[in-house]
Amino acid sequence: MSQWSQVQQLEIKFLEQVDQFYDDNFPMEIRHLLAQWIESQDWEAAANNEAMAMILLQNLIIQVDEQLDRVSQEKNLLLIHNLKRVRKLLQGKYHGNPMHIAVIISNCLREERRILAAASMPVQGPLEKSLQSSVVSERQRNVEHKVSAIKNSAQMTDQDVKYLEDLQEEFDFRYKTIQSLEQNDKNSALIKQEMLALQAMLNTLDYKRKEMLSKIGRVIHEIDMLMSNMLTEELLDWKRRQQIACIGGPLHGGLDQLQNCFTLLAESLFQVRRQLEKLDELLTRLTYDGDPIPVQRPQLLEKVNFLLYNLFRNSFVVERQPCMPTHPQRPMVLKTLIQFTVKLRLLIKLPELNYQIRVKATIDNNRRFVLCGTHVKAMNMDESANGSLSVEFRHLQPKEMKTSAGSKGNEGPHMVTEELHSISFETQVCLYGLTINLETSSLPVVMISNVSQLPNAWASIIWYNLSTNDPQNLSFFNNPPAATLSQLLEVLSWQFSSYVGRGLNSEQLNMLAEKLVGQQVSYNDYQLSWAKFCKEHLPGKSFTFWVWLEAILDLIKKHILPLWIDGYVMGFVSKEKERILLKDKTPGTFLLRFSESNLGGITFTWVDQLENGDVTFHSVEPYNKGRLSALPFADILRDYKVIMADNVPENPLKYLYPDIPKDKAFGKHYSCQPNEVSKPSDGGGKGYVPSVFIPVSKILNDSTEPHSPSDLLPMSPSVYAVLREHLSPTAIETAVSCKLSHS
């Protein structure tokens, strides 16, 4: 079943999450119509390779054209219209930056996998639950409602200003008319009546000026309250969601909504500013004793300017955190002399600012590192698919400076991977007589000089962003706080859902918890130290918990990914639990388990029954990446043979736990059909016998010595048949160099 088919079967609450990240950047119609083709392409690799991304973009347009031809024949007018729009979008927005569409599709596929993994979990994790709180959603709606109301109030005040201006012009005209009359004419009863009318008009003007200033004051107060409370909370929540998304959590959204709010508030404040300027013009033409404009206008203008300064400062955000294109799922880990990308956005989207704001990127002030490459660029609305005012740095490289003695700084693994740095950005906005200096910084990054340091560096990034919402605590690892185990387990599941397409269920997470802290009554409130997670070796082992887990992630990604995504690898189960699960099953039932003693190893264990009815268990030596590079794991499961005491070779693996026939589970992943036994003369070209690798093990029931694990033996079925014809069992036993271990 395709990934998209699985998505369509989700409950409505999960489908709503899917709906959030499909928009005009990548329409859902294309995802639906081209589901299988899209899933068969390597968008993650294309996101880091412009030539590959361009080829995929061209092929995507070809696929759209083929769909367009099909629906044209069916005369589906609505679909024809939508596909033409999509084709125009793909050609217009992404032709100059094909890697952008690759990043978007890669992120959408990854987020689908995360949602599918979340849907398979019995309960939602504490972190994800907090991010999707109904209180947060209600506040978002309230902010949007209040911003819209403020915008309407500012526009209504514009009408009041126009009315006040018209009223004052009429007063000026009538007053100047009376002033131009001769002194004798001014004493007439008609003129005295006109003077009373002018006094009434002046009283109305005074009232309207006070009313006008009061309305402006209320708008300013509403903006101030909104910015100080709900909008600030919304921005902080978005930044927290970004932190969580960076370590594998739910794809964060809401920035476009924030941009809309910030932009509307800025427009309202500039509108109020123009209204105050208009009042100043009216003041120059008419003033009087008790005039409220000279008293109140300067205070209101100062408040408006103050709010504009704060609004602009808060609107300058890092939209996409620093990330090496070679490691898109390990953001904030930067390798010296390797390019990284980072994107910034100004949430106040005003056309007057397009190409007018130049942003400068620097690294923190310890002078140990400098940034090479283009580090000054102008923000614009043309590069982003959604037309936001943004700038993306794509060619920055961190370079380590030499010390005064001529050598580079200390690059010990612990010091490097726990030392935090910050990429800073500064710019200046000049608009309508205002000059505002803006600064912002990335989340803390870890610098490495060797790829071997990446796993520990990524552990630091996980721990920091899990434990704190402080965006700039560069001394965090001087005294790192403990983390709540339940939240850490949730983040570990995200590592699997984001990196290898399937998260961990509660049983798998319980096994990880036991490995970290041993048997506990409850993991919910347990506080785990940083040292326990990443620095102290596991009991009896020469490696840490995190190194062990990272090796498993690497194994899955490179060698058993399809099996893992299908859910056929139980993986995280102890030997004790393994036996409990298998003991009552049909002989030949097996399960797949990650090795606890070998880094990046996977083994399988099956249950068997002795003649006396006793149950026995057999486990093979874990297969590591070296052996799996020679033979796919699915083929190993298909072709695996054991030689029993009577030298009858057989495949003991019959059913994947709990009761799935082996070929039904793994058949689609076999690289080829198993070769049938044939004579040498029946073989391949030039009289050679076709050969395949077959994993063979030997079980000696009467041996009291501990058995060594099995190895792979290059032996074809036909060769084995010939050996059986010409060699004794003892000779075959000698040829089988490795044996199966009982465990």
UniProtKB/TrEMBL annotation:
GO biological process, alphabetically ordered: cell surface receptor signaling pathway via JAK-STAT; defense response to virus; negative regulation of developmental process; regulation of apoptotic process; type I interferon-mediated signaling pathway; type II interferon-mediated signaling pathway
UniProt xrefs under PROSITE patterns: SH2
Pfam families per UniProt: SH2, STAT_alpha, STAT_bind, STAT_int, STAT_linker
UniProt keyword annotation of Thylakoid present: no
Domain SH2 residue range list: 564-666
Keywords, in A-Z order: Acetylation, Activator, ADP-ribosylation, Coiled coil, Cytoplasm, DNA-binding, Isopeptide bond, Methylation, Nucleus, Phosphoprotein, SH2 domain, Transcription, Transcription regulation, Ubl conjugation
Statement: the UniProt record of this protein carries the keyword Manganese: no
Family, per entry: Belongs to the transcription factor STAT family.
PANTHER family tied to this protein: SIGNAL TRANSDUCER AND ACTIVATOR OF TRANSCRIPTION
Name used for this protein in its record: Signal transducer and activator of transcription
Species in which this protein is naturally found: Vidua chalybeata (Village indigobird)
